[in-house]
Design a protein that fits this description.
binds ligand AN7, about 15% strand, globular, four-stranded parallel sheet
């Protein structure tokens, strides 16, 4: 029978705080590929899958949480949504606001947003505010703004965001038949690691700090276990590794350039309750991992996403990956959002040659 994927709210409605008659806003998010990556098996001795979130409608995992957050806003009087963002949240909020018939305001750290993400906010008609500060400053302002004015906050401190994002864990268990042994993902504001842990836990029949009581646990368990959660931060933006906020976070991976994560407590609980850890990787390791996935697996991801692959490879080098373990790495955003970083440091020669077969063949060394 013909079936088109209905977006995460309809696909997982019995596990989300929406009824069948509630009006919802969706762009068809979720249902993303879980790709087996033999090149990563070879590097790690495990069986490694990559959850490719860059194929979501706006090119990142944020869409899973935006369908739920914006659908909940429809139940209120708010006519405008707002968020602080390192880029992907603003792209997603702007797009889903369009679909909902709402206005959007995005508060961004000036000069630190990848070009593709900025273009998305602009073409979707967001009110753009560039602040002379970092993401943490922007989030403080977004919280104050939405406290003071009739504007709804759609950052991941809005609990509906994590509700939507937990569906990625459901999809992985549905695809593999059970939870993996290890789940690796990049950590910035720490919402996603908290959401995955919630999803895995609810599928195994228990709740977490981030669960919303009325929705969790009225269904039989689907998974027999939960994975260890391994989080990866950028070296210069690693508050959860250091155990204290970082005042001036810096990394080439602008998506995760965050010094004081909002979901700090949830992320620590995900780490500790799952028996996992949170580590950090250097910018060089991030860029090498991005290049490796592009050239050995065939998936082009943004630098922030590459933190998970870099963390996996670092753990493999340290002998931390049990042989034969099933490992899932979430790659959170599409490489096309930030081509400048992907191409920097490469020597490219685009000098045109004569328009003949001979000249082309000679150039190809054939
Ligand atoms: C590609 O868009 O915080 O730990 O404002 O864009 O849940 O914050 C983005 C974060 C990982 C980190 N990968 O996730 C924003 C924003 C990509 C991201 C993260 C982000 P969280």
């Amino acid at each position: 029978m013909a079936h088109q994927w209905q977006g995460v709210i309809r696909e997982y409605q019995d596990r989300l705080p929406f009824g069948p008659d509630d009006e919802i806003v969706t762009l068809g998010e979720g249902g993303t590929p879980l790709v087996h990556a033999p090149a990563l098996d070879e590097k790690t001795g495990a069986r490694v899958y990559v959850k490719v979130e860059g194929v979501n409608p706006t090119g990142s995992f944020k869409d899973r949480g935006m369908t739920t957050a914006i659908s909940q806003v429809l139940q209120t009087d708010a006519k405008m949504v707002a968020c602080a963002s390192t880029g992907n949240t603003s792209a997603s909020a702007a797009a889903y606001a369009v679909a909902a018939g709402l206005e959007s305001a995005v508060i961004l750290p000036a000069g630190k947003i990848a070009a593709g993400k900025l273009a998305q906010a602009i073409v979707h008609g967001a009110h753009l505010v560039a602040v002379d500060g970092n993401f943490d400053d922007c989030l403080r302002i977004a919280r104050e703004l939405t406290d003071r004015y009739p504007v709804a906050l759609v950052n991941s401190v809005n609990p509906y965001r994590l509700q939507g994002q937990k569906t990625a864990a459901f999809e992985i268990v549905d695809a593999l038949g059970d939870a993996p042994d290890i789940h690796v993902l990049p950590v910035g504001n720490a919402g996603n690691i908290s959401a995955y842990w919630m999803g895995y836990s609810e599928y195994a029949g228990h709740t977490t700090l981030a669960s919303m009581d009325e929705t969790a646990l009225h269904l039989p368990p689907v998974a027999t276990k939960t994975p260890q959660m391994w989080g990866v931060q950028a070296w210069g933006a690693a508050p959860l590794v250091l155990g204290h906020p970082v005042k001036n976070p810096e990394t080439v991976a602008t998506a995760i350039r965050i010094g004081n994560p909002a979901s700090w407590k949830f992320a620590e609980a995900a780490r500790d309750d799952s028996g996992g850890w949170i580590d950090r990787v250097t910018d060089d390791e991030i860029l090498a991992a991005q290049a490796f996935l592009a050239s050995h697996v065939g998936i082009f991801i943004e630098p922030g996403s590459a933190a998970s692959i870099a963390g996996l490879l670092k753990a493999a080098d340290a002998g931390k990956i049990p042989s034969g373990a099933t490992v899932v790495c979430t790659v959170t955003g599409n490489g096309l959002k930030d081509t400048a970083t992907a191409l920097s440091g490469r020597s490219l020669d685009f000098t045109p040659i004569e328009p003949t077969l001979e000249a082309v063949a000679r150039t190809l060394g054939l």
